[in-house]
Amino acid sequence: MQRSVDTIIIGAGPGGLACAKLLAENNRQVLVLERKQIIGPKVCAGGITWSGLLRHVPEELIEQAFPEQSIFSNLQKIKISEPEPIVATINRKILGQWMARAAADAGATIETGVTVRKITADHVVVQYTDGKVRTIGYTHLVGADGSTSMVRRFLKISTDKMGIGINYQINGTCTDMEWHLNTKMFGSGYGWIFPHRDTISIGAYGDQHNLPAAELKKRLLAWAAEKGYDLSRQQARAALVNYDFQGFSFGPVLLVGDAAGLASGLTGEGIYPAIITGEAVAKKIIDPDYPADEITAMAKKQLQHQKVIRIAAIHPWLCSLLMEWLVFLLRIKLLDFHALEMAD
Ligand SMILES: Cc1cc2nc3c(=O)[nH]c(=O)nc-3n(C[C@H](O)[C@H](O)[C@H](O)COP(=O)(O)OP(=O)(O)OC[C@H]3O[C@@H](n4cnc5c(N)ncnc54)[C@H](O)[C@@H]3O)c2cc1C
To answer: Which atom of ligand 1 is nearest to the CA of 275?
Structure first.
């Protein structure tokens, strides 16, 4: 062993950084290992909700905020509005840099350009960009390494429930935040148009089992063209969204965010769940008796979202009926938009 630390966190996404900050604030020795050189950038539409992260980030991080949401199904078009912004957009690089600064200021050590290659019961083997390999011992290991988590594989936890999202970030501006529950194109998923400050996120999300990535991309390009956006020469970026939660605490090894499978399978929302689980895992490391009720509540919310996906998967007409029903309930205000969010 070349060195040893109390807690190693693999991954400097929102989950890992939230965990690191809280541990460091409680005087725990914490080392965050991130394979990317720059913290923050991640395939993402950058949507954050009022009940979730929106009220907890400084105003300058908000790119645009939307008190109105335009929702389209195959047959309906509705606009819901509230006095406060319902969803806002953020830039993931700026969010990541802000969170990394806060964790470092609290005393966490963050190393970038370091890829964890191997995990054992008491140490990890890491490789630096110059090719050097080192072993680092740990007392606690936190897997905050995203939807294809190596820590999850080390724990031998299978991952079956997986969403897939494709994002195009194009230059330009537009005014409305749009959700398109177009079941012919995206099944139980949706297409989105999320305006940022001087770019627009256009993308689609679907269930990996029903819509393989190549097919989702083909449909997204066709759908965007109908909306007047030619994406054929733009750079697509795709990533998986793990929503297969099977627990988060496994002795000295704990899972956070997408690695724990705590994103929403229905909407793909995962930034806020990652932050909440990151903080809960830090509390669990500080006090092993900590009940982590916030994770239980989040898992319950996620199960409700899964029920919708399960019903929608039975038959395409049932999927269309369900989405029309959801939009109708939103229209007559019997369903609150916040029920579709991961925060309570
Ligand atoms: C197209 C798309 C759009 C999305 N839009 C939204 C949205 O609008 N709003 C929302 O809330 N969520 C959205 N999500 C989901 C959101 O991006 C994730 O849920 C969130 O980033 C999860 O955070 P995390 O900290 O768990 O993991 P991540 O953000 O994935 O961070 C994991 C980190 O671990 C690092 N890592 C992985 N393996 C290793 C290793 N072996 N060694 C070292 N480092 C490693 C990675 O480089 C990465 O930085 C979207 C997802 C996709 C795919």
So the answer is: 25
As a whole number of angstroms, the distance between CA 121 and CA 137 comes to 9
118: containing domain: 3-42+92-159+243-310
Q: Are residues 175 and 237 in the same domain?
A: yes
Q: How far apart are CA 39 and CA 104, in angstroms?
A: 12
Q: Is 269 in the pocket of ligand 1 (CB under 6 A)?
A: yes
Residue 179: both structure tokens together: 């959700």
In the reported structure, the alpha carbon of residue 161 is separated from the centroid of ligand 1 by a whole-number distance in angstroms of 16
Average pLDDT over residues 203-215: 92
Q: Is the pLDDT score of 9 beyond 70?
A: yes
Say which residues have a Cβ less than 8 Å from residue 307's Cβ, sequence separation at least 6: none
Residue 183: the pLDDT is 96
DSSP code of residue 147:
T
140 belongs to a structural domain? yes
pTM flag (> 0.70): yes
> Is residue 102 situated within a structural domain?
yes
Give pLDDT, residue 1.
61
Measured by CA distance, the residue closest to atom 30 of ligand 1 is: 146
Mean pLDDT of 81-102: 96
Using most ligand atoms within 8 A of CB, pick from 179, 237, 241, 272 the residue to mutate for ligand 1.
241
Which residue is listed with tokens 């229209």?
331
Give the residue, by CA position, lying nearest to ligand 1 atom 50: 44
d(CA 197, CA 90): 9
Joined tokens for residue 244: 């297969």
Residue 13 Cα to ligand 1 middle (Å): 6
Residue with tokens 């496994």: 250
Cα(213)–Cα(175) distance, integer angstroms: 29
What does the longest C-alpha to C-alpha distance in the chain come to?
62
What confidence tens digit (pLDDT) does each residue in 106-115 have? 999 999 999 9
The pLDDT of residue 261? 98
User: What is the separation of C-alpha 295 from the centre of its chain, rounded to a whole number of angstroms?
Assistant: 15
Token digits of residue 59:
């105003």
